[in-house]
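for the recovery benchmark. tokens below, seq after
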């Protein structure tokens, strides 16, 4: 075969590859992100700022955002166009499940569309009344050697430092813990957690979470990080927070200075939709990266929000652009009040199938089902091994081509 023939084959193949993602190439630009939908967000922001009668400076202060979370339907109806029925329903749900929305997150919502993926994550829905699922599907009560700690794996554990969050997500799997009152772990309990970790030499990875790990005070966080940093067997510290999504103002210079002192810190956040990737979120990610923090994302697969191959691909690609590496996609658990977000496992498989090969490996998180009764994270993967034989295995590749490989 001469060079010209080889080039002709390559060109044909390149066209084939292009065609294989044609569907996505067409749809991709119509999936809005927080960066492309800037006009709507800016207009919303102006309107909300007027409702609260505040300065831009206050808006940019996370303490203002936190203490001015929207928690009543009167305020919300000044920000979104709600029907009478919706107003009544939100009032009713509010008596059963807590809700709170940061003014910033509210500014990402389409005021006229109740199916807006941002709204569905934040605004209570009548569907939450359906009483299926468990209160505690994680069975966290049985894996807590000391108050505040959950140890479910041999070499790592989580410390739940607070039950507070910047926003109370409607799909939250920890609803049981997200109480009516905001509680940080008292200092004496926190000290006992550190004591436990110090005595357990197998623990090399400590995940500070909640609630939201970044809703504790600077002083407490500083104390905790410095204590953990002193423990020789603690190799890495992880932080679980949704603030880059729901209240990016929280990522201050002061916080970044603090985090930069305790490398390596891995911070996992929780973006679920490309609309959440805004200028503010990007700035937060940039600041964290500059502080040497390694960023990851844990999305939850949610009906009507991201249960779509194109939306999920776009989300992961947009995350990489702001230096956040997709880490997990969680299959939604059976938690009371979240039944309306349920999706079939086939949907998650379809999404994974549409990622591998079709986009950068970096944009592919691991799809996880949390096994019932706290039995742990279980990876779910499309099957690429078709048959096991004595001396060879039958495989298929991302395009469905079948081949044998020696074993
Ligand atoms: C998710 C989780 C971890 C961390 O698991 P990785 O797979 O290492 O990210 C640790 N402890 C508990 C209890 C968890 O739920
Ligand atoms: S930020 Fe996380 S823990 Fe807090 S309500 Fe949302 S999903 Fe739940």
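predicted aa per position
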């Amino acid at each position: 075969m001469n060079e010209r023939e080889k080039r002709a084959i390559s060109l044909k193949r390149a066209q084939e590859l292009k065609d294989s993602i044609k569907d996505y190439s067409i749809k991709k630009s119509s999936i809005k992100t927080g960066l492309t939908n800037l006009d709507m967000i800016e207009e919303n922001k102006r309107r909300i700022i007027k409702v609260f009668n505040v300065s831009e400076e206050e808006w940019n202060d996370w303490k203002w955002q936190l203490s001015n979370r929207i928690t009543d339907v009167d305020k919300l109806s000044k920000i979104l166009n709600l029907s009478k029925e919706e107003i009544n329903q939100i009032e009713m749900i509010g008596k059963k499940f807590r809700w709170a929305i940061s003014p910033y997150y509210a500014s990402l919502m389409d005021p006229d569309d109740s199916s807006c993926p941002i709204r569905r994550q934040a605004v209570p829905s009548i569907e939450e009344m359906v009483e299926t699922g468990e209160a505690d599907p994680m069975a966290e009560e049985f894996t807590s050697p000391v108050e505040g700690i959950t140890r479910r794996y041999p070499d790592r554990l989580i410390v739940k430092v607070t039950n507070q969050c910047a926003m109370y997500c409607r799909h939250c799997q920890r609803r049981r813990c997200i109480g009516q009152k905001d509680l940080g772990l008292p200092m004496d309990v926190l000290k006992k957690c550190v004591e436990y970790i110090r005595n357990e030499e197998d623990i090399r990875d400590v995940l500070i979470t909640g609630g939201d790990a970044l809703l504790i005070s600077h002083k407490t966080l500083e104390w905790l990080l410095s204590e953990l940093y002193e423990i020789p067997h603690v190799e890495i510290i992880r932080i679980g927070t949704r603030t880059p999504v729901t209240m990016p103002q929280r990522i201050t210079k002061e916080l970044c200075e603090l985090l930069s002192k305790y490398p390596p810190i891995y911070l996992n956040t929780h973006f679920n939709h490309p609309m959440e990737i805004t200028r503010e979120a990007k700035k937060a990610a940039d600041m964290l990266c500059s502080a040497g923090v390694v960023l990851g994302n844990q999305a939850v697969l949610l009906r009507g929000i991201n249960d779509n191959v194109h939306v999920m691909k776009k989300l992961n690609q947009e995350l990489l652009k702001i230096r956040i590496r997709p880490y997990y996609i969680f299959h939604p658990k059976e938690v009371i009040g979240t039944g309306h977000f349920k999706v079939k496992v086939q949907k998650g498989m379809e999404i994974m199938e549409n990622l591998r090969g079709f986009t950068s490996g970096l944009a592919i998180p691991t799809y996880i089902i949390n096994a019932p009764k706290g039995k742990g994270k279980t990876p779910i993967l499309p099957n690429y091994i078709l048959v096991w034989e004595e001396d060879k295995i039958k495989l298929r590749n991302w395009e469905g081509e079948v081949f044998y490989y020696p074993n």
